[in-house]
């Protein structure tokens, strides 16, 4: 575990008490604990990670715009958390299975999501935004922390099957106060299930600051359950990748679960239904803007002479193209007839389902008669 148990209520110094590879100014920082996990990452790989983060931020801004224009019912922004999601997501093997919350747009991206997958659920067209089997991701989970239990159940199934897959679950700092998360860690530890817990500590559980629910680092809780943990700079994409590779190796090699706390910051609202100006200080926002994960990697690449204006233009064009496809997919979606809610509920039709369908059809018809 990262050897820091300093109180975290001081946002000014909190990020300094994490494991990192690249400092906020782009300087490379030697880290014996993390370096060996990313010794294969060259400058081209860094440019690819940079591209991923730029594309993700553009997808996120398009999601906000679509909601503001009435095309989506809601959107959960991930602006500021690009490194935590891209770094950990790119470390996963295709065979691993992810159990997300509702904010893991970047993890969806790393798993091969199509443009329409990002908006389908938020538009209310389907209960699941994508095919979980194709992407290797369970449906987005709205119930805070519930996905951690699902991940542990899946992990216990992996043990039963005798395979080397890993179940990975993402959640926020607020979820760590939920009983589900703590119960999930108990079972994962007791059964040595191959599960990686990824806590994206973005400092705000809606309007509740993390310092109110925990005076000490969240990663310090895991060892109490017998789970080793790392506390990493969540705005350092290389540190996030290295930490995730360590955690996956630990779980995949039969040593049981591992826990990551990626210390990052939610630059936007909790969702588009939230107004963070009512509870968040502008000075804190400005402080974290200086720690931007994309700008940090750009600074590192520029200092090494490995980033050109042509590359930046190409990346921005690619990001705009994906956003355009996402918008077109959203607006072009056709809402299914209301009675389609009964389709594919059971493999074989039965009288009880038909009766419910008939009753609902009669209910809908009453509006037409009125």
UniProtKB/TrEMBL annotation:
GO terms for molecular function: branched-chain 2-oxo acid dehydrogenase activity; magnesium ion binding. Its EC number is 1.2.4.4. SUPFAM superfamilies: Thiamin diphosphate-binding fold (THDP-binding). It catalyses: N(6)-[(R)-lipoyl]-L-lysyl-[protein] + 3-methyl-2-oxobutanoate + H(+) = N(6)-[(R)-S(8)-2-methylpropanoyldihydrolipoyl]-L-lysyl-[protein] + CO2. Pfam families: E1_dh. Belongs to the BCKDHA family. This is 2-oxoisovalerate dehydrogenase subunit alpha.
